[in-house]
Each structure stands twice: as C-alpha cells, then as structure tokens.
C-alpha cells in the first residue's frame, strides 16, 4: 500500500506560481492606473515566506476574456493559485464570478462567505459583493494539475482586510482572513507547501499536515 501523503510530496511542484488578474474596463483601457495588482502583490510578498513567482494580467470586464485568461493561467502557465480583483458587484459589466464559475470543476463557497462577513464589519453594502472561489482541475496531464481560483474585492484596503482578517487594538483576531486556509487547500490539491509569516497571516493546518510540527518532548524531559 502506498502512503498518500508521501506520494503527494514526491510529486510536489518545485516552484509556487501565483496568477494575479485585475478586471477593469477603465484600467485596462488606460483611463487610470490599476491599483489591484500592486496591492495584491505587496500583500502576498509580506505574507508568504515560500519563494514564489507572479504572473499578472490586466483585462477588461468581458466574460469570454476573463474565462480565457483564467484557463491560460491554470492550464498553460500552471499557476497553483489565481487571485482576481474587480468585477464582482451587481452592475451589468460585473461578470468576474460568472467567468470564474464557468472554468471551475469544484466550487469553494466558504471563501466568498467569509469575505462578505469581513466586509460587513465596515459597510452594509458588503452583501452586494458576489466573490466566489473554485478549484480548476486538469486530470489529463502528467502529473495532474489543479489550482485554487478566488475573486477578491476591487479596493486595496478591502483586499488586505479579506486576506489578512481583522484584529482589535490589542492584536486579537476579530475575524479570520481567508488566506489562513489557502496553504492547506493548496496542499490538498497537490500544490507546493506554502509557509507564511505568522505576524501577517498564520496559515492553519491540521497537526498531521504540518511539515515541522512543534516538538513538545522537551517539556517532558526529566530533571537530572
């Protein structure tokens, strides 16, 4: 019998690749400078201690274009995580969630639910946000590949809040950020082992999934 955990580790990709997609008619048309991708990359570089490479795309609010971009980033570029920003409201041109659901093989509703819960601490209109998350699996390649694709808000402040979570003045966690669950999700779909800076966002994994679990033996050492 083979060990599933060992098999997963042996096939683990050598490089973590993250796709960042900003969806905006005006930014992609040069009307104003995009703020979404810089905000995303700045936060990721502060939070992730594992080396990673970023692929960026700035595209208009066109469903077919969004779908094609997400498919390219997962299937061709082989991203393990794809984060989009923009296009998740109720306006007619906001179609990022529809495009994301169209390319997914599994929906991950908990991410969107938590994002809205975090934003509701600030504005009641958070219930108008339609962020979704999906897994896109490509089984017919060797080794099989999969990625987590998530929609994030469009404002840099909201991006940070939803990824990192909320803390009170004493530094106690008020609402958990969604990124705490991302590394273990990537583990489960066969991606690289992601480690984070706990001061920014502490990744949560079950003890059985930790690479370097805390050593509690020292506490039980008898006195000489």
Automatic annotation (TrEMBL):
Assigned keywords, A-Z: ATP-binding, Molybdenum cofactor biosynthesis, Nucleotide-binding, Nucleotidyltransferase, Transferase
Protein name as catalogued: Molybdopterin adenylyltransferase
Enzyme Commission number(s) from the entry: 2.7.7.75
Organism placement in taxonomy: Bacteria, Pseudomonadati, Pseudomonadota, Betaproteobacteria, Burkholderiales
PANTHER family: MOLYBDENUM COFACTOR BIOSYNTHESIS, MOLYBDOPTERIN MOLYBDOTRANSFERASE
Catalytic activity: molybdopterin + ATP + H(+) = adenylyl-molybdopterin + diphosphate
Gene3D superfamilies: MoaB/Mog-like domain (3.40.980.10)
An individual GO BP term: Mo-molybdopterin cofactor biosynthetic process
Family per similarity comment: Belongs to the MoaB/Mog family.
InterPro entries: MoaB/Mog-like_dom_sf (IPR036425), MoaB/Mog_dom (IPR001453), MoCF_biosynth_CS (IPR008284), MPT_Adenylyltrnsfr/MoaC-Rel (IPR051920)
Chain's role: Catalyzes the adenylation of molybdopterin as part of the biosynthesis of the molybdenum-cofactor.
Domain MoaB/Mog: 19-173
Associated pathway: Cofactor biosynthesis; molybdopterin biosynthesis
Coiled coil: none
GO molecular function: ATP binding; molybdopterin adenylyltransferase activity
Record-linked Pfam families: MoCF_biosynth
Catalytic class of the enzyme: transferase
Recorded superkingdom: Bacteria
């Amino acid at each position: 019998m083979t060990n599933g955990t060992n098999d997963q580790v042996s096939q683990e990709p050598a490089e973590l690749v993250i796709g960042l997609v900003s969806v905006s008619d005006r930014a992609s048309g040069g009307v104003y400078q995009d703020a979404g991708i810089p905000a995303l990359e700045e936060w990721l570089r502060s939070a992730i201690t594992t080396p990673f490479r970023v692929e960026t795309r700035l595209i208009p609010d066109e469903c077919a274009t969004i779908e094609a971009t997400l498919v390219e980033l997962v299937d061709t570029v082989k991203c393990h995580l794809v984060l989009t920003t923009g296009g998740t409201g109720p306006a007619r041109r906001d179609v990022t969630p529809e495009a994301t659901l169209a390319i997914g093989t599994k929906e991950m509703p908990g991410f969107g639910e938590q994002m809205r819960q975090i934003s509701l601490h600030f504005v009641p209109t958070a219930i108008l946000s339609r962020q979704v998350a999906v897994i896109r699996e490509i089984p017919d390649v060797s080794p099989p590949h999969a990625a987590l694709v998530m929609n994030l808000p469009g404002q840099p402040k909201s991006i940070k809040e939803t990824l990192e979570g909320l803390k009170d003045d004493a530094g106690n966690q008020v609402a958990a950020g969604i990124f705490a669950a991302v590394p273990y999700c990537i583990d489960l779909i066969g991606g690289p082992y992601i480690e984070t800076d706990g001061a920014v966002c502490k990744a949560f994994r079950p003890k059985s999934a930790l690479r370097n679990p805390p050593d509690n033996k020292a506490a039980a050492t008898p006195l000489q």
